[in-house]
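Lab notebook, bench 4. The sequencing result for the construct came back, and we need a structural model before the next group meeting so we can plan mutations. Quick request posted to the team channel:

Model the 3D structure of this chain.
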Amino acid sequence: MVETSPGCALPIGARVHTGGTRHASVNRLWGGHISHAVRAEREVYRIPDNVDLRDAALTRLLAIAYHGVRLSHPAAHETVAVVGLGPIGQLSARLHGVSGAQVVAADLSPERVDRARAAGVEAFVLEGDLVEGFQRYFPTGADVVADSTGAKAVLPQAIELAKIPTWGDGPLAPSRFLIQGSYPGDIMLPYNVAFLREAQILFPRDCQPGDIEAVLDLLHRERLKVADLRETVRRPEEAPETYAELKSAKSGMLTAIFDWKA
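Done. Here's the predicted structure in token form:
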């Protein structure tokens, strides 16, 4: 329920998406688990009536992936290689596909690949060299490469997937290397590989209000399906074991939703 002040455009009881709270005793850098929040009206986004609240719970992840797509700006005639099919990779592949671009994704996990395929994404299980794996689909490289692995060792290989532009007097269409993963500390990229591709290296930083509004609209217009990325709803008291499961490399879980009323 949303409690509103006089003159507020949102009625009491409106379904909304919002971040953390201004009045909290815990660090809320990436959002905290809270049952009540105090937010300014401009920081509250109404959820369309036809959008399932469980889908809306993924809004923040969707908006982060969408911000990356806004930076990579794929065209309908272009190709996109997505490396890593965790939650951001799954969403990045689907959102790039909304543009009409040809998207191919890869992951080491057959389960994650199957999940992407079921959502209509062309995907394969990587069983050898990353570049060789993608060459079957993009022999001359991809216009956009989105890395969402969070693995530093993958970055130097992933940038090799980017297309080397044809050299001439025509307009240049540089390759874009989108780094959607989170990396502790510094990362290293091979200079000559990026140089030959005149690569634009993009670092999406979280999301903006417009990204949140855009993904809620995509869900509203049913241009995007995310129900398969919702995991079993958990109770708040199950948080410790839920996070342990999310962190485990052996777990197939991608997301978790907590029901405060459970």
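Residues 59-72 form the longest helix (14 residues).
Will bring this to the meeting.
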